[in-house]
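[Automated response] Your request has been received and processed.

Submitted sequence:
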Amino acid sequence: MKTDKRERPSFKQKQSGQRRQPLSSSTRDGRKKRPLKKEGSSDSFLICGRNSVSEFLKSRGVRRVFLKEGKKDDRLLSLAALAEKQGVPVEEVKEEKLDDMSGGVVHQGIAALLKPYEYADLDRVLADWEGKSPILILLDGLEDVRNLGAIVRTAECAGAAAVLLPKHKSPPVTAAAMKTAAGAFAYLPVCQTGNIRQTLEMLKEKGFWVVGADMDGESLYYDANLKGPLVIVMGAEGKGVSPLTRKMCDFCVRIPMKGKVSSLNVSVAAALLIYEAAKQRDEL
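Generated structure:
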């Protein structure tokens, strides 16, 4: 049974069941939402695969599409038609060239050059979620971009508000991360933040609770109270949450391990905590 003895100012609790739409230049009420403030925007880069290209075409984040020469199935033809409808140049190339361009990533006959990735502004994310119970995921020292992509994908599917990447302790958003995320970067805000301590202190002042994933956590993740505005802190592969960041957590939770392997992949562990937090919101 979960008990709640927490006493922190609320984030103006209010529930919303609306599905997130692709990030665009405006919201339903007419307020500007994109383009967001550039904070460390990366250079343009290539993504491969039909799902990834499709999602970024929907969000109008594509500069150019590369399509394999020769016979094309209906899916490739529909993607080419969508690109042309948006005025995005479509260039046919030999499949061997597409193989070289993709660098070993499975391309499924299509690749796209994206516009420079723009990190979302955290203050704007918080403003958009005011009156609700947002879930933020802060990545402390993550190194593998594929884990980043997997966590962003899970966070978007579970209805989280954003993923936070400390500027000096996280990998950049790359093509490999986007491929793993299967288009989730087009929908979920990813914020590049500064000092972790200052970021968490600011969020606590706004009514957020901070939970860390730790092998020595004081409670099991499904027994903890994860309701209300929440920051889930995930640590680095093989190292976990850093000692300084752990001190900033209000509490830590652990995942029961019954086998002989001592830990889960960080993206799998993040998925368990994110969905438990989402489930508890559904129970309200």
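Summary generated for your ticket: The CA atoms of residues 86 and 188 lie 22 Å apart. DSSP finds nine helices and eleven strands in the chain.
If you did not submit this request, please reply to this message.
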